[in-house]
Structures are given as structure tokens and as C-alpha cells.
């Protein structure tokens, strides 16, 4: 639930200059990246008293029926939180209609649980016996089989729990509105949520529209019965839907972006693309994560975790199997540093020069994720938290030539100063 304390607007802004100090160097051996700047020209002002949404986490899907399962080397890189790891805190898995394939989900799911991640599941195709045999154009579950469908979901839920990979939540249907898998009309989804969803033995995610289409979710949220049977409003942002959802907030429901991908439509020629072209699209991806956070959404998940256009190389299209890709390093500025249970808080940018930023607090830390989408560098960036000047901070930077490069910042001469290269993302971590 969004809570805002009004009236805290006049913050005493103390200009502080911090030179970029390379890790392992002291104040007598200062390394200034890109040359010194003399003053703060762009101010990042965190107001931790103004709070927005709880962060549930960041992640993606492992689909061992459609793609090879990850091995332990890749799993460690995905779910670990140390340097050179991605820090994923949510894993999405697939509810296969064939119970004999459920065991394929266990190895990675069990590993994710061991690292403290949460898991949710989405079904693509319902068990064929539940479908309308007379509907040859589109697969639909017969309404009289909705109870049996609940049993199917509960069986998967129990299977995962009994095998050391309990689900945090389960979805009713992946993309009921796209036409490639089991289909639901808005009326059918509402009927199920009113009459059957209460029997699902876990938190319920719905409707997972491929464009966050509100004609699917609004009726559920506006119905006095159905609204009590939905816990998380889930959806995707393929070609639309990336916007605030006041009705979901009003009904005290979490909002999760549960799937998205970008691959420049170059599925057969990815290896021929210039690194800069791929990086430019990765910057667009980061913009969608930033917007999702600004929309008060609680979670953001990508499609395949391990794929040549994703976060871990799969050995195809010129990628090295199990190697973290630059797109993964970029995403880790959110997934590794903005942890489950953190709160997004207010941040004001003065003379932003095109920068965008979000701020978070948790575990006695303030975390600021800053994106520079410009084709030019931005110097003279200053940051503060309320009116307290941190003695030290850690800056992590990814650009076309850097991968989460860490720099230790130390207060110097009561000024704060750092800079960002063109087309880059940075995370500033301050101990409170």
C-alpha cells in the first residue's frame, strides 16, 4: 500500500563533493574517472520519509521442457548476490499439463529456494481432458471443469512443496488473451475468479494478460467476491500495458510484471549484431524496469533467464554457455542491489540532464539506481539522503565498456561528485 508523508518538502541540501576513489586506493592516490569536475550540477535528493511500494523482487523463467535446464554453475551466477552474480530473487516456473514432466522443474527450483528466492508458477496449456471438445478454433476449459482445473493447479502446488520447492503463488493462466495456448475471455476469467479461485491452495496471480489489458483485470478488482480471491495482479508488457494501476493499489493488491523479452527480432542473426546495437536495446530494457518501479509495481520478471538475448549465455548465436551476458549485468543493477522487502522511496532530480533514477531503502541501506540514456556523459552528479552526508558509498557502473565496475566513494571537502558515461547505468549503495 502506498503511504506518503506530506509536508516533508524542504530538505536542507548540503552540497558534498566525492571524488571517485578506486578500490584499494587512499586519499593520497586519487583516481578521477574522466577528469575532475568542480561542482555539483545535477542533484539527486533522496527523501526516505516518502515511501511507495514494497519490492518483492526481480527474476525470470526457467523452462526445462522447452529449453535445457540450467546447471549448478549457471544457477549460482543467477541466484547468488556476490560480485559477478545476478542476485535473482524470483523464479518463474511452468505448470506442464503432463504430470510426468513436473520433475523437470525441481533441480533449479530447489536451488533457488536454497538461495532464498521465491517461486511462482504459470500454466500455458490445460490438461486436454478439461477442454471443450467442440471448440476446435481455440482451446477453452469447459466451465463445468473449472473445479477439476483447480485440482490440477493444487496438485502441482503440492508436488512442488513436497519436493522442497514450495510455491509462493500460482497463476490461473499465462496470457489468456493471446491465442497460442488455453484461452479465457474476460467473462470466463471473472467467473472462475468468483466461483473457483478461492479453492486454490496458495496466493493467486491473475490474469497475466500479454498487455496488462485492464478489461481482464478491472472486472475482477471491481467484483466484491472475485477481488478477495486475487492476491497479485500479474501481466506482461508486449506492446502496451506499462502504466500505473491505481485500481489495483486502491484494492491493496500487488502488481507484478511477470514476463517480457526484447531480442531486436534477430533470432537468426543475433551473432552478427554489433555490441553497441545490443547495448542500446539493453538500455531500453532498463527503461522498462525503471518505469515499472515508478508505476508502483512490486516485481519485474524477464522471459528466459538463460538465452543468447537474455542474461546467461546458452552457447547459441555466439554466446558462451553459462557466461553472464552484458544484458544480465545491466539487469543486476536492480536484481542484485534492490532486495526483497526494500521500499521504494522518493528521489528528486534537479537539473537532471536527462538522467532518471529510483531510490530504495532496506537492510540499513539506501540504494539509488541511475540510468543515463543520453549519447553523452553526465558529470557533476551529486547525491544525498535527507540531510545526512555519508562518509562512504559504493558506486557500481555498467556501460558499453564496463560490467558492474565498483568504485569506493569517500567524502571529501563536503562535496559529493561522480559522473556517468554515455548510455550507462549505475547503482549507488549507501550505508545508513
From TrEMBL:
Keyword Hydrolase tagged: yes
Record InterPro entries: GH, Glyco_hydro_30, Glyco_hydro_b
GO biological processes: sphingolipid metabolic process; xylan catabolic process
Keyword terms of this UniProt record: Carbohydrate metabolism, Glycosidase, Hydrolase, Polysaccharide degradation, Signal, Xylan degradation
This protein's GO CC annotations: membrane
Leader peptide range in chain numbering: 1-24
GO molecular function: glucosylceramidase activity
Keyword Repeat part of the UniProt annotation: no
Protein family: Belongs to the glycosyl hydrolase 30 family.
Name assigned to this protein: Glucuronoarabinoxylan endo-1,4-beta-xylanase
Natural source organism: Lutibacter flavus
Amino acid at each position: 500500500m502506498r503511504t506518503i508523508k506530506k509536508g516533508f518538502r524542504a530538505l536542507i541540501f548540503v552540497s558534498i563533493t566525492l571524488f571517485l576513489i578506486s578500490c584499494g586506493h587512499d586519499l593520497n592516490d586519487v583516481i578521477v574517472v574522466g577528469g575532475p569536475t568542480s561542482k555539483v550540477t545535477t542533484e539527486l535528493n533522496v527523501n526516505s520519509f516518502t515511501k511507495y511500494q514494497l519490492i518483492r523482487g526481480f527474476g525470470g523463467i526457467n523452462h526445462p521442457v522447452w529449453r535445457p535446464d540450467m546447471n549448478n554453475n549457471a544457477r549460482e551466477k543467477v541466484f547468488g548476490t556476490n560480485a559477478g552474480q545476478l542476485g535473482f530473487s524470483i523464479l518463474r516456473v511452468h505448470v506442464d499439463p503432463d504430470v510426468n514432466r513436473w520433475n523437470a522443474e525441481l533441480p533449479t527450483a530447489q536451488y533457488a529456494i536454497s538461495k532464498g528466492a521465491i517461486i511462482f508458477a504459470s500454466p500455458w496449456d490445460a490438461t486436454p481432458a478439461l477442454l471443450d471438445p467442440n471448440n476446435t478454433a481455440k482451446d477453452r476449459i469447459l466451465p463445468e471443469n473449472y473445479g477439476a482445473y483447480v485440482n490440477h493447479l493444487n496438485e502441482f502446488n503440492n508436488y512442488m512443496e513436497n519436493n522442497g520447492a514450495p510455491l509462493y503463488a500460482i497463476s490461473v493462466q499465462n496470457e489468456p488473451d493471446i491465442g497460442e495456448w488455453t484461452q479465457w475471455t474476460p467473462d470466463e476469467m471473472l467467473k472462475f475468479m468468483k466461483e473457483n479461485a478461492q479453492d486454490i491452495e496458495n496466493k493467486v496471480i491473475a490474469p497475466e494478460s500479454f498487455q496488462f489489458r485492464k478489461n481482464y483485470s478491472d472486472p475482477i478488482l471491481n467484483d466484491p467476491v472475485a477481488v478477495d480471491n486475487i492476491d497479485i495482479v500479474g501481466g506482461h508488457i508486449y506492446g502496451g500495458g506499462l502504466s500505473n494501476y491505481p485500481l489495483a493499489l486502491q484494492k491493496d493488491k500487488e502488481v507484478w510484471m511477470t514476463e517480457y523479452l526484447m531480442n531486436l527480432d534477430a533470432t537468426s542473426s543475433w551473432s552478427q549484431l554489433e555490441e553497441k546495437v545490443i547495448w542500446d536495446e539493453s538500455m531500453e530494457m532498463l527503461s522498462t524496469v525503471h518505469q515499472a518501479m515508478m508505476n508502483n509495481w512490486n516485481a519485474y520478471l524477464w522471459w528466459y533467464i538463460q538465452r543468447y538475448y537474455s542474461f546467461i549465455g546458452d552457447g547459441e548465436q555466439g554466446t558462451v554457455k553459462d557466461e553472464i551476458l552484458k544484458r544480465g549485468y545491466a539487469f543486476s543493477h536492480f536484481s542484485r542491489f534492490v532486495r526483497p522487502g526494500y521500499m521504494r522511496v522518493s528521489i528528486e532530480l534537479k537539473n537532471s540532464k536527462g538522467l532518471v533514477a529510483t531510490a530504495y531503502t532496506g537492510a540499513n541501506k539506501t540504494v539509488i539506481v541511475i540510468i543515463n540514456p543520453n549519447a553523452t556523459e553526465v558529470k557533476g552528479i551529486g547525491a544525498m539522503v535527507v540531510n545526512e552526508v555519508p562518509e562512504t558509498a559504493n558506486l557500481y557502473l555498467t556501460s558499453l565498456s564496463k560490467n558492474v565496475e565498483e568504485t569506493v566513494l569517500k567524502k571529501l571537502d563536503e562535496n559529493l561528485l561522480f559522473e556517468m558515461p554515455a548510455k550507462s547505468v549505475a547503482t549507488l549503495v549507501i550505508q545508513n
